[in-house]
Specification:
By secondary structure, the chain is an alpha/beta fold. It contains 18 helices and 14 strands. The radius of gyration is 29 Å and the shape is elongated. The chain starts with a strand and ends in a 15-residue tail after the last helix.
Length: 463
């Protein structure tokens, strides 16, 4: 991680030497200046990010220290400045802070005092920078500007997304886990006439029926034990906007019936209430399941399926659009480099080759996780294969399976067991690789009686 660069401006050579030695011992990078003119020239010629803090004397041989402070803040509005003076008065302290100084210390100062002020100022500055980055990311999230691609295959998906966004039809987004279904749902919303209203999402597979119903429909005070206040649900909060129902294929029959009523009648009744509330919502649903099969086998309501599936957007897995691997990797590399303040410029040719050759069973989500890990572990300015936790070759099927005539059920059981073993029985990771939800994986484990080598059923991971 890069160390902070601190600029010191003081006309006393002894102070400059003392501070430089003190701060370099703490592994800060230090630049010193004897007058305000030289300091301001340095700030004017540099760029944002090449200095993290300024320690500045209030008295200068060439100009007033407060004037230096004002000009420095004009050149670098976000640069934290600590003013030092041997002539400390309340008036000068107030004046310095009024013009943008973070703090004010009076000479002579003990090293603990100045180090504490510096650490606090840098910590606050880091928090403010992270807030600015997060705000930028929030402003970009789920908008077209945040959809990274170069492939013709994904361009066709994106163009269809923009085309259907102009309508008010409900949309079903299909695709494997990690392909970016919520991102597409957001793009639909932000390119529609509903963009001024809220875009909300809920993962239907992550909640029990009771909690899912409460989150969607809200409840009135006293509706159940613990309902001490009335709470709005997502249906009411999303009125006029878009509600994204992720993993809709895992919703129970009871909740399916209630959702159907909302779509048909454009109204709902909060849990424990008696009066219906009218809403105007566009629904975008997503699943990695074959919903037509679910309908045929009676696990998903046919009428709800057709209500949600007015238009289908089918997302290709990352392995089918390899042209997008490099631009996506660069996007995530820059994102996490900014977040942890590392200077990483790119990838080695060998790392790029590894990424292009990999199968990416977890799709874009897996690529993002790999990039975050790579940025954390990389020591230099280039990401190399050693920090990429990927293997180019997919594990081969057991040789005996090639010569056996066995049922699909047996194949599924063996494949799930193999994936569980290869992930150390990590259920979240296994579900991602298998392209199913955690809830579905738990059901399959129970159905097939899968067990650890010692005979115990795989324990839920703590993620």
């Amino acid at each position: 991680m890069l160390k902070a660069r601190i600029l010191i401006c003081d006309d006393e050579e002894g102070i400059r030497r003392y501070l430089q030695k003190l701060l370099q011992a703490k592994e800060y990078e230090v630049e010193t200046f004897a007058d305000g003119t030289t300091l301001l020239a340095r700030l004017e010629g540099g760029t944002d990010g090449d200095a993290d803090m300024l320690l500045q004397d209030v008295r200068m041989p060439d100009m007033d220290g407060i004037e230096v402070l004002k000009r420095a803040k004009k050149l670098r509005p976000t640069l934290p400045v600590v003013v030092m003076t041997a002539f400390g008065t309340i008036d000068s302290a107030v004046d310095a802070i009024k013009h943008g100084a973070y703090d004010y210390v009076t000479k002579p100062f003990p090293k603990e005092k100045i180090l504490g002020v510096i650490e606090n100022a840098l910590e606050l500055d880091l928090l403010m920078k992270e807030n600015r980055v997060l705000k930028e990311e929030l402003n970009r999230t789920d908008t077209p500007d945040n959809i990274i691609f170069t492939s013709a295959k994904f361009r066709a998906v994106y163009e269809l997304t923009l085309q259907v966004a102009a309508s008010d039809a409900n949309i079903l987004v299909l695709g494997e886990s990690g392909t970016g279904k919520e991102l597409i749902a957001g793009a639909v919303h932000y390119n529609s006439s509903r963009r001024g209203k809220r875009f909300l999402s809920i993962n239907c597979a992550a909640l029990s029926d009771t909690l899912l119903e409460s989150q969607l429909f809200g409840h009135v005070r006293g509706a159940f034990t613990g309902a001490i206040t009335t709470q709005k649900g997502l249906l009411e909060e999303a009125d006029g906007g878009t509600l994204f129902l992720d993993e809709i294929g895992d919703v129970s029959a009871a909740v399916q019936a209630k959702l159907l009523r909302v779509i048909q009648e454009r109204s709902f009744i909060p849990v424990g209430a008696t009066k219906a509330k009218s809403v105007d919502i566009r629904f975008v649903a997503a699943t990695n399941k074959d919903l037509e099969k679910e309908v045929r086998e009676g696990r998903f309501r046919e009428d709800l399926y057709y209500r949600l599936n007015v238009i289908t957007i089918d997302l290709p897995p990352l392995r089918e659009r390899p042209e997008d691997i490099e631009p996506l990797a660069e996007h995530f590399m820059r994102k996490y480099s900014r977040r942890i303040r590392k200077e990483i410029r790119g990838f080695s040719p060998e790392a790029l080759h590894e990424m292009r050759s990999y199968h990416w069973p977890g799709n874009v989500r897996e690529l993002e996780n790999v990039m975050e890990r790579a940025v954390i572990l990389t020591r230099g300015e280039t990401i190399t294969p050693e920090v990429l936790p990927i293997r180019r070759k997919e594990p081969a099927a057991p040789p005996a399976a090639e010569n056996r005539l066995i049922s699909l059920e047996v194949i599924e059981r063996e494949h799930i067991e193999r994936v569980l073993r290869q992930t150390g029985f990590h259920k979240s990771r296994s579900a991602e690789i298998l392209g199913i939800s955690r809830k579905t994986l738990d059901r399959k484990i129970a159905e097939y009686g899968l067990a650890l080598p010692g005979g115990a059923t795989p324990a839920p991971d703590t993620e």
